Amino acid sequence: MGELRLMKGNEAIAEAFIREGVDAYYGYPITPQSEVMEYLTAERPEKRTGMVVLQAESELAAINMVYGAACTGKKVVTSSSSPGISLMQEGISYIAGSEVPCVLLNVVRGGPGLGDIQPAQSDYFQSVKGGGHGDYRQIVLAPSSVQDMYDHVSLAFELAFKYRILVLIQSDGLIGQMMEKVEIGEQKPRLTNEEIKAKYDTWALTGRTPGREHNIVTSLELDQAKQEQFNIHLQNKYKEIAENEVLYEEMEVEDADYILVAYGSSSRICRKAVNLAREKGLKVGLLRPITLWPFPEKRIAELAKRVKGMLSVEMSAGQMVEDVRLAVNGKIKVEHFGRYGGMIHTPEEVLEALETKIIGG
Amino acid sequence: MADIKIEDIIKSENLVFKKTKLFTDKPLSYCPGCGHGVAHRLILEVIEEMGIESETIGVAPVGCSVLAYEFMNIDMAQAPHGRAPAMATGIKRVYPEKYVFTYQGDGDLAAIGTSETIHACNRGDNMTIIFINNGIYGMTGGQMAPTTLEGMVSSTTPFGRDVELMGHPIKMTELVAQLPGTCYVARHAVHTPSAVRKAKKAIRKAFEKQKEKKGLSFVEIVSNCNSGWKMTPVDANKWMEEHMFPYYPLGEIKEI
Description:
The complex is a heterodimer. Chain A is an alpha/beta fold. In chain A, 43% of the residues lie in helices and 20% in strands. Chain A contains 15 helices and 15 strands. A 7-stranded mixed sheet of chain A has the order 3-2-4-5-7-6-13, with helices on both faces. In chain A, strands 10-12-11-14-15 form a 5-stranded mixed sheet, with helices on both faces. Chain A is globular. By secondary structure, chain B is an alpha/beta fold. Chain B has a single domain, classed as Thiamin diphosphate (ThDP)-binding fold, Pyr/PP domains (Rossmann fold, 3-Layer(aba) Sandwich). Chain B is built from 11 helices and 9 strands. In chain B, helix 3 links the parallel strand 1 and strand 2. Chain B is globular. Chains A and B meet through helix 4, helix 6 and strand 9 of A and strand 1, strand 2, helix 4 and helix 6 of B.
C-alpha cells in the first residue's frame, strides 16, 4: 500500500500531475480549482521533477501554451472551471484537429455565464457533445472521489498518448474542494528529450532530426476532399475508442428493477439513495459512467432489456439523460432528476423522484 | 535528357546566390511583389547560417502566412489566430535549449493576439517574434487592420480609416519596446537590397539573443500588400516609403 494522505481533490490531482512525470502545467486561476496551481507552485515541482508551472494571462493563452507543448510530445496539462473551459474551446478544437495529446481538468461550477462557484454538472453537453467547432470528440473521465482525481491522471495520459487525443477530467466543485483519504503512487520519471524523440519522432516537433522531413502540426487542410479524408480518419479513431475504452461502475444492478444513472458527485448521492430504496424493499441499482465519452451505451441498452425504468440523476437541468434515452431507445421509461445552478440534491430527493417519476409515473 | 545541374549553366565563380536548402520546393502562395517571400528567406538563411535547423521550432499564424510551415523545412506548428506567442511560450518552456520563433502578421499580432503578444514580451520569454506589418488583412481580402494608416482605404474602410470612428493605427513595436521583458526590438523593411541586408542582420541578432537568454527579441518588418492596396508592386513599395515609413520609422529601437 502506498502513502496515505488527507487531501482536497484539487490538491490530490496536482500531486498526481507531479508524480505522473508531467512536463508542464499552464493555467489561469478560477474558483473552485485555484488550489491546483497554488499546490503546484508551493510544491516547487521544478525542483522535484523539473516540471514547468506557468501562470498564463488568460485561459486562451493557457490552452494555447498547452497546445504548443503538446505539439512537441511533452506531457502537458491545464485545469480550469466552467467559464474558463468555455474560453478554451477554440484551442480544444485546434488540438482535436491536429491530433496532439494533452490532459485538461474541468472543476465544474454552476452556470450559465459567470453563474456561481458551487458544484454543478451542467457542462456535460460542452464536454461530451463538443464545445468547440467541427466534428470532433474528446475522452471525458468523471472522477467521483478524491482517489479518482489522483488515479485518473495516469489513465488520462495513457489514453491521450495512445490515441493522440485530448482527455478531459470532468470533476466538479464538490470533489475539487472536499477532503478525503487518498493513496499516493510512486513518482514516475519524466521522459528525457532523447526518449521523446525516439518515441514520437514521426509527428512531434522536437527540432528536425537530420535525415527526416520537417514535422508539421496543423489543423488546416485547404483541399476539401483531403479534409473529408482526415475527418473520416478522425471518426475511425473515435469509433475505435468507443469500442475499447468505455468504463463504468455498477452497484446492485443484478436484481434491479430500476436503475439510477449518475456520474461524479451525483453518483455518490445516488449510492445512498440506492441504500434507502433497498431499505424500503425497492430493487434499485446504480450505473456510474466513468467515461462520459465514450458513453456506456451498450451496457445501458442491455440493462434496458430487463429493468422497468431508469432515472438519470445529474446536477444539471438534464443533459446526460439524452444519452441514456438514446441508449435505451424507447424500450423503457427514462426521466431526469437533479438540482442545479450550484444546488445539490439529497438522497431522499432522489428516491422521491424515482418513486414519483419512474415507479409511480 | 540527362539531369542538368546548376553548375552546368553557371560557373561556380559566377554563382552569387543560392536558395537556402531550408526552403522546401513548394511554390510560395504569396502574390508577386509581396514581402513575405523575402522575409521567409531571411529567417531560413539565418537558421541555416547558424546551423540550428535541428534545434529550431517555428509557429505559423493565421493570415497570408498561415502556410509558412509548407515553405520552411523546419519543425513547425500552426497556431489559432493571434495565439502564436502563447504556443511558442508553451514550446520554449519545455524546450528551453531550442530556438523558438513565431511569424505573425498585423491582424494576428496587433488585433486578435494583442494580449498574447504583450504578455509573452512582458514575461521575457526567451524567443523571437517576427512581425510582418503591411497595414491590412491580406488573406481575408483587404480589410482594415489595427495598423491601417489614417485615411487608408481598405475593404472595410472604403472611404479611408476614420480615426474618430476606428481609433488610431497601433505601434506595437514601440509598445513592446517599453516592456522590460524584451531584449531586442527593431523595425526594418525588405523592399530594397540595402533594406534586405539590414533586416537580415536584425533577424540574425534576434535569434542570437535566444542563445544569450536575455529575453524576447522582436523584429517588425514593414511590408507592402500590393494586391490589398490595389497597386502595382512598384507603386506599393513607393507608397510604403512615402506613407508607412513616416508613421512606422525603420531602425533599431532597443537592445540590451
